[in-house]
Design a protein that fits this description.
Layout: E1 3-8, H1 22-40, H2 44-49, E2 53-63, E3 72-82, E4 86-95, E5 98-110, H3 123-127
Antiparallel strand pairs: 1-3, 2-5, 3-4, 4-5
Length: about 140
């Protein structure tokens, strides 16, 4: 199962060519990951209570087609892998059935000082419904 989020492209998201600016997709993807974390029971507030942060350490974006003003951009998020102190995620943004961008990221769990920490207890189990087939 994948988590789905939808955002409507706003005027402030556009570049001079009337396309959603490439950098805005990163915000769309982040919003979707935060929503999925909340759905899994690991909201930013809960992580903070645990003394943890989840921070991006790698990102690879691929752009396919432009989204335009008013388009409903659907973002699908899946967990690819959960390791001892990090996770890998796959995300896809599309308008209707047309893919507009994909993102592959690695995120790490750290404490408030930025020191790597183990994946929180229960995270592995909470991520199972959102995993890609064949992922760990």
């Amino acid at each position: 199962m994948a988590h789905k989020s939808v955002v409507r492209a706003r005027f402030s998201d556009l570049d001079p060519y009337n396309h959603v600016n490439h950098a805005r997709y990163l915000s769309y993807f982040e919003m979707a990951r935060v929503e999925l974390l909340e759905e899994m029971g690991f909201s930013m507030a809960r992580l903070a209570e645990m003394g943890l942060q989840i921070v991006l350490v790698e990102a690879r974006v691929r752009y396919y087609a432009p989204a335009r003003l008013g388009d409903q951009v659907s973002v699908t998020t899946r967990v690819r892998e959960v390791r001892r102190a990090s996770t890998r995620w796959s995300q896809r943004a599309q308008v209707g059935t047309v893919p507009v961008a994909t993102l592959e990221i690695k995120a790490a769990f750290v404490d408030r000082q930025g020191k790597p920490q183990r994946t929180p207890e229960g995270f592995v189990e909470a991520s199972i419904p959102y995993r890609l087939a064949g992922s760990r």
